[in-house]
Amino acid sequence: MTLLEVKKLKTFFFLGKDEYPAVDDVSFTIDEGETLAIIGESGSGKSVTVLSIMGLVDFPGKIIGGEILYKGENLLRKTEKEMGRIRGNEIAMIYQDPMSTLNPMNKVGKQIAEALIIHKKAKKNEANKRALELMKAVGISDGEERFNHLPDQFSGGMRQRLMIAMAIACNPKILIADEPTTALDVTIQAEILDLLRNLKHEYNMSIILNTHDLGVVAEMADNVVVMYCGKIMEKAPNKELFDNPLNPYTKKLMECIPRIDDKKKRLDSIEGYVPHPTEFSKGCRFSDRCSEVFQKCKEELPDLKEVTPNHWVRCWLLDENK
Fold this sequence. Notes:
8-stranded mixed β-sheet, 12 strands, about 30% helix
């Protein structure tokens, strides 16, 4: 069953007379119990996409088109009060920097319990008891001792666990994880991913995972969306995407993955850089960095087309009339 459907979403930023298309005509769905990964370099539009879903795009950003259907209802038509009942309750989000979200002056147990008091109308004692259970569920075994500690008394990995405890407090249907392991060392990353995977099954959650780490994607995702400069370049089931990437941008991302059997002294990289929104090509947005570019790529933006069942690609190389 489809839980969330994003249809032709457009989120632009407006500075003076200029407009910057951070998310431009993006569409995807997520089913119950599915993990969807959104991948791409910094500046590709991943974070703005999920902030749009949460209704958290701040000025000068504005959603100017499309629909975000949750259980068939368009979230873009909800009032802020209505979104407040959904946000953190049915759709929750964890961020890559817990200290930007955790209140440094509030005890962590109180912060976890607060979601239950607000959304579930739980009494303080009930909420505190559930907060302790959640701390234990995310791997903080000495919760009773640390319930009254402040966030800065925890390590980076433990703060991320606290963020996850807050996010799952109300048993959300969708958990959005925006680069949840970026600032953590490899061992802690693996622990957090295992935790998310276990919680997904325990609470029957769907997960939207924003990341640039393809190793994480290969391990966690059911389906993958590849974004670049606000556009979807490719989307496909996980195995299909890794076995048969078709867009040159996706191929380049795959080539950047370090491999244990690779004898090269240097890792591959994508030449150039993500362009500023004012410098987007009028054609394919990857054309300035693509090694397979030809004239049409620079002049016309290709459509996103379904080339095989559930495998969608935006590229002129796959067009018979190129």
